[in-house]
């Protein structure tokens, strides 16, 4: 459903949010390893997220990526998806057809509307603070 860019971006931001409890800044190598993503690709995604104030970064030997307390509380998964995907996930065809619309629907068009609405609601209502407190997510990153 999400592009690889969005998948890696969500994973990276959730991982960084998990580390926010310790006030540590996380380097690109550690993030890429934790989310099982190519380092250069992860860097490109994080650059875009930094530019859009989802994450912050500091350069230098003691630098890295971090998320401040205010962003943990205010940023939802939807904010991340909007930066990386735009509205495509909420408006695009479930089968990826360009000509699909209400006048010329694909076989899944009307069924997919409800799925998109539920997805949007879930992404809008899930904050980084909520995910950074989720023990199952912490356990996932510790195991991998």
TrEMBL record:
InterPro entries: Tscrpt_reg_Rrf2, WH-like_DNA-bd_sf, WH_DNA-bd_sf. PROSITE patterns: HTH_RRF2_2. This is Rrf2 family transcriptional regulator. GO terms for cellular component: cytosol. It comes from the Bacteria. GO terms for molecular function: DNA-binding transcription factor activity. It holds the Pfam family Rrf2. It comes from Polaribacter marinus. Coiled coil: none annotated.
């Amino acid at each position: 459903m999400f592009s690889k860019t969005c998948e890696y971006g969500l994973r990276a931001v959730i991982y960084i949010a998990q580390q926010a409890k310790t006030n540590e800044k996380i380097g690109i190598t550690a993030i890429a390893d934790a989310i099982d993503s190519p380092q250069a690709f992860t860097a490109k995604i994080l650059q875009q997220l930094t530019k859009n104030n989802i994450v912050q970064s500091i350069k230098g030997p003691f630098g890295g990526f971090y998320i401040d307390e205010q962003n943990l509380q205010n940023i939802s998964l939807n904010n991340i998806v909007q930066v990386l995907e735009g509205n495509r996930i909420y408006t695009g065809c479930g089968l990826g057809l360009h000509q699909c619309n209400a006048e010329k629907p694909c076989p899944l068009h009307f069924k997919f509307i409800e799925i998109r609405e539920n997805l949007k609601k879930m992404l809008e209502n899930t904050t980084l603070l909520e995910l950074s407190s989720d023990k199952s997510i912490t356990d996932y990153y510790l195991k991998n």
